[in-house]
């Protein structure tokens, strides 16, 4: 088992496919996860999340390898590797992030000089590795205003954009996040565009879900340029066209 995952040592803790763990998990040796984990993982030297694993947890380790499904933020001191067919929902933070062909990176913060050293603004983007050969093709998503440090007000009240970032991490702030121009110009094929649109849809669901979970729905403000058709019936929320973030 260890050899198949290129473990640096012979010692490893293995959580098998039938195991379900909820809580805080830390170890001084390498960790292989094949079951279901919910809570927090780490610190650890190396964490490998197997192809059948489902992790709902933040992960903190020197090296992280993802082959399965993860819902949570990943932070590595050395590197994060996302294998083909892996599914990651969360922020990735590491000196080196390895993605496979056909995979998206997580959001990456960019800094821009406006008035030399006197003024800097930040934006966010993410990358899609379309092809390695015969031609190297790397797509960069249009730069969005950074919700963690917005250069312009993007919500009402203005503080809500940053509050939402603290709850769900980075999110797209364009009025229409689906990149129709990439499809029109042949950068995306139909399948790639549908995948990107699905990512946006799931992101919008998280944006809606976070504030609405806090208390009974009572909508007060809406982020401009975003939209949603919804109906509220008691505790039941039916989202017809998700695309908005609410302050309630």
What structural keywords apply?
248 residues, alpha/beta, 2 domains, 11-stranded parallel sheet, 3-stranded antiparallel sheet, 3 helices, 39% strand, disordered C terminus
How does this model look, in words?
The chain folds into two domains: about 5-100; about 110-245, no CATH class. It is built from three helices and 20 strands. It has helices at about 160-170, 180-185, 190-210, and strands spanning about 10-15, 20-25, 30-35, 35-40, 45-50, 55-65, 70, 75-80, 85-90, 90-95, 95-100, 110-115, 120-125, 125-130, 135-140, 145, 220, 230-235, 235-240, 245. Strands 1, 2, 3, 4, 5, 6, 7, 8, 9, 10 and 11 form an eleven-stranded parallel beta sheet that branches. A three-stranded antiparallel beta sheet has the order 12-13-16, with no helix packed on it. It starts with 11 loop residues before the first strand and ends with a strand. About 25% of the residues are buried. Residues about 1-10 and about 215-248 have low confidence and may be disordered.
């Amino acid at each position: 088992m260890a050899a198949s995952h290129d473990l640096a040592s012979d010692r490893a803790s293995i959580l098998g496919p039938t195991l379900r763990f909820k809580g805080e998990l830390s170890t001084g040796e390498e960790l292989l996860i094949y079951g279901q984990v919910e809570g927090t993982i780490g610190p650890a030297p190396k964490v490998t999340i197997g192809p059948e694993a489902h992790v709902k947890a933040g992960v903190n380790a020197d090296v992280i390898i993802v082959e399965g499904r993860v819902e949570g933020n990943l932070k590595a001191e050395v590197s994060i590797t996302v294998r083909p067919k892996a599914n990651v929902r969360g922020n990735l933070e590491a000196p080196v992030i390895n993605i496979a062909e056909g995979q998206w990176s997580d959001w990456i913060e960019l800094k821009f000089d406006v008035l030399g050293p006197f003024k800097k603004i930040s934006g966010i983007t993410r990358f899609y590795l379309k092809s390695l050969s015969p031609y190297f093709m790397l797509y960069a998503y249009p730069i969005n205003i950074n919700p963690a440090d917005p250069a312009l007000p993007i919500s009402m009240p203005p503080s809500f954009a940053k509050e939402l970032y603290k709850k769900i991490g980075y999110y797209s702030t364009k009025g229409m996040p689906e990149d129709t121009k990439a499809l029109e110009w042949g950068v995306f094929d139909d399948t790639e565009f549908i995948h990107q649109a699905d990512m946006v849809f799931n992101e919008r669901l998280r944006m809606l879900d976070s504030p609405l979970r806090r208390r009974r729905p009572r909508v007060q403000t809406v982020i401009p340029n975003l939209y949603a058709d919804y109906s509220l019936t008691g505790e039941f929320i039916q989202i017809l066209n998700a695309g908005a973030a609410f302050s309630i």
